[in-house]
Amino acid sequence: MAGRRRSDGQGAFWGGLVGPNPTDRGENGVKRPLLVEADGGPLSAVVAGANVPDFKLLAPTLDAIVVERPEPSGEAPQNLCLDKGYDKGEVVEEAVCSRGYAPHIRRIGEQKLDSAGEKRCPARRWVVERTLGWLSKCRAILVRYEKRAVNYLGLIKVACVLLWYRRRHRLSLLR
């Protein structure tokens, strides 16, 4: 029996870029890695299957930035803070440094302690989680209804534009 050929971005039934979620009994899922600024404004978004490791999505996420970056200088370098999921050695650091960022990668098993042995400098992961929470208020993003990955990524980008618009509007009201 001959099967149909799939074009780019199409999967079997649920569309392209869907994979078994290792933390949810193998249910199909999607990862939405984001690059955000210090205040939580989204700068880039990528879609991938839930079974793809985070460090493999770093280079596509950094390449998908939609605004032009200012040139980093010696007194004002551009920092990139990554969590322990990106602790994969030279592959990640080379991808970050080649794009002009100063990497700050928390190592696995490492905790930031001050001289008294107390924790200092809490993780900044909450900024990305907050932005993902803002995006999850859009029902079409929280539950993936779109079969084509391109359409789903388009919805995520439209939601990111709405976040920027609301933020800009809220700041203009405060002036």
Lay out the secondary structure.
Blueprint: E1 19-20, E2 28-31, E3 34-36, E4 42-45, E5 48-49, H1 58-63, E6 78-82, H2 90-97, E7 101-105, H3 125-136, H4 139-142, H5 149-174
Parallel strand pairs: 6-7
Antiparallel strand pairs: 1-2, 2-5, 3-4
What does this structure look like?
The chain is globular. The chain is built from five helices and seven strands, in the order βββββαβαβααα. The chain has a single domain, classed as 2-Layer Sandwich (Nucleotidyltransferase, domain 5), CATH 3.30.420. Strands 1-2-5 form a three-stranded antiparallel beta sheet, with no helix packed on it. The mean pLDDT is 83. By secondary structure, it is of the alpha+beta class. The longest helix is centred in the last third of the chain and has 26 residues.
Describe the structure using short key phrases.
single chain; 175 residues; alpha+beta; Nucleotidyltransferase, domain 5; 3-stranded antiparallel β-sheet; two-stranded antiparallel ribbon; 5 helices; 7 strands; 32% helix; globular
Q: Unreliable runs, pLDDT <50, ≥5 residues?
A: none
Give the overall shape, derived from the CA principal axes: globular
> What is the helix fraction of residues, given as a range?
25-40%
State the CATH class.
Alpha Beta
Q: What structural class results from the helix and strand content?
A: alpha+beta
Strand residue percentage: 5-15%
CATH topology: Nucleotidyltransferase, domain 5
